[in-house]
Amino acid sequence: MRASDCDTPALLLDMDAAERNIEKMASYFRGKKATLRPHAKVHKSPFLAQKLIDAGAKGITVAKVSEAEVMARGGIHDILIANEVVGEYKVKRLARVAKLCKLALIVDTVHNARQISEHASQEGSRVTVLVDVNLSGAEKGVLDRTGVVPADALALAREVSKMSNLEFGGLMGYEGSLSAFPDAATKVVACKKALGVLMETARTITNSGLEVRTVSSSGTMSYKTAAEFPGVTEVQAGGYLFMDIGYRNAGVDFETSLTLLTTVVSNPRPDKLIVDAGYKAISAESGLPGVKGRPDLEVTSLNAEHGHLAVKGGFAGPSTSVEDKLELLPTHADTTTCLHDEYVLLRGGEVESWLPIAGRGKLQ
Q: pTM value?
């Protein structure tokens, strides 16, 4: 069947384009000292994670223990949880997942590290720990989220290195959220400043006698800068697989592989169309979606179940009527995939198969 024959709304994944994106990024990292550890929160699928690894990625990154569980049970053997995991219940699950795979995570308090050590000891598992470094002080506009200030990283690293069933692995610092900067050149400068602080922190820890094997950072927005920055060992870029409008507008050069198929359900007047996809099918926290291949159409608003499209003047687009299919372009793929149970996998415009989104709903 053709993609246009699918019932809607349907999340379409063009595997030809996705695999070209995978190869393009893998090719870029070949010969680099830094390796690629793609973030799986984008696609939430062990099948797609394995494709990334088969192309050369060293492992994957996830955001939650529940995502790590899905990936480990799906055969992924090298996982970084790029997030703090706190609370007895979550830490107990974490220690169990570490028996299924090579597992690393980040911490920013001694208490959390000690809690992980206790549960890993009880389970007989080992966990690699990276100290999370907050890089927001390096440049205004760099994401201010989790992590210790750089001056406190050494003390935390020393404590982690003493704890049973934990292995101090190095540092993580996230400088990838650079949307506050107006142009590419300014973003590169900000990224380099932040990474400079991260590497200075790594040198301080190394000079103390501890080994820093891993310095993990970045995302799709700044992958080139991070991959070429001396001392960075792995880059967590993941969004390039799907390439949403947000990345496209930021100048990231990959193909769009993820779209949402929708049906025109009403044409209340000549300049307005209503489709059967709203907030429950496509996210809009980063802006309203686009319409693939249709410059004559603009999404003007969303309701829970409906999308409102304006027919713009000045374009000679094809006539569109009720029951016609359109493809919407997500502005943020991460928060769109989590709304769906499955991908419709396409090759050459034909439906190849359906792929469950195994990590859907894994919020804990």
A: 0.95
